[in-house]
Amino acid sequence: MKIKLGLLYGGKSAEHQVSLQTALSVIKALNQDKYEIHPIYITESGEWVRGELLTGTVENVSQLRLNQTGKEISPMSLSTHVFAETSEQQDSIDVVFPLLHGPNGEDGTVQGMLELLNIPYVGNGVLASAAGMDKVIMKNLYAQAGLPQVNYAWFIRSEWEQNQEKAYQEVEEKLGYPCFVKPANLGSSVGISKCKDREELVAAFEEAFTFDRKVIVEEGVTAREVEIGVLGNDNPSCSVVGEIAPKKEFYDYKAKYEDGDTALIIPAEIDENTYSEMKDMAIKAFKAIDGSGLVRADFFLTKEGNLLINEVNTMPGFTPYSMFPLLWKHAGVSYPELIEKLVNLAIERHEEKQKIRYTM
Known about the structure:
Blueprint: E1 3-10, H1 16-29, E2 35-42, E3 48-50, E4 71-73, E5 95-98, H2 109-117, H3 126-133, H4 135-144, E6 152-156, H5 157-162, H6 164-174, E7 179-183, E8 193-195, H7 198-208, E9 214-219, E10 223-232, E11 237-246, H8 253-257, E12 262-265, H9 272-288, E13 293-302, E14 307-313, H10 323-330, H11 335-353
Parallel strand pairs: 1-2, 1-5
Antiparallel strand pairs: 2-3, 3-4, 6-9, 7-8, 7-9, 10-11, 10-13, 11-12, 13-14
């Protein structure tokens, strides 16, 4: 029998459009002989809309905006265990694939709901998703795990508003220039600025705080940006390494998702010892947040040969420009095979959780 796969995309997030692009790519890659594809769209304002079973092709993201064609639903209706008397079995979902980026999707909120509904879902659980989304928490965990990383500082909006000068001085004394200012709970390079002086730092804080109540500032380093994919649950494996060579000063949103104005070098030119070290660090980072399913681990490789972990992305994009599927393609895993592995890992993890005893 076909697996009833619910694709959950959109979301109340600044990365809404990124999610639509990811969903389009996944739909085009899915084998409809193996999967029933059930689109579930979350609008920018947070409504959940379920579309008809997909049986044909989807050519553009506008077709995925189901506001006019779909049926508004309660998220609870995805589980017939919860609504056994009102939901029909044919409406149930076997596995959910959250293709959501940013807050209200990649941060553990949706994962927590799916846990309560006892529905298998692709990717990381509540803790890993939340820790991976919050760059401050993630870096604190990696510091505790002994993973080398760049120096950083973080600030809450209310504290910054009370004493902006103190925040700027802390950055200049602790990190210096250049530095990068980022919203703590956002991805896809949204709201990120590179700062070379005080004027740019002030503007960057103001920009970042429009996207989040917490910002992180990271020391700028001269290094290659290299990335590796991690796939699995308790015994994860790693892909080949890729390198980002942006034509701009850094790998921003436009370069990632719009114009492809970046060279992705796959596999990256690194020696075996560096590759082995990078795999070990990526798996250590994966386990430090109790990861499952997948992450893309991002590193800096200095000219001295030192590896510094930058961050992990618990739901990397699957767009035509995305690094994660390309890394696995070069490792011998095609895009359709990658999706199938992720679905199987979701089922495996769900079955393992069913062994947990909840009664005395």
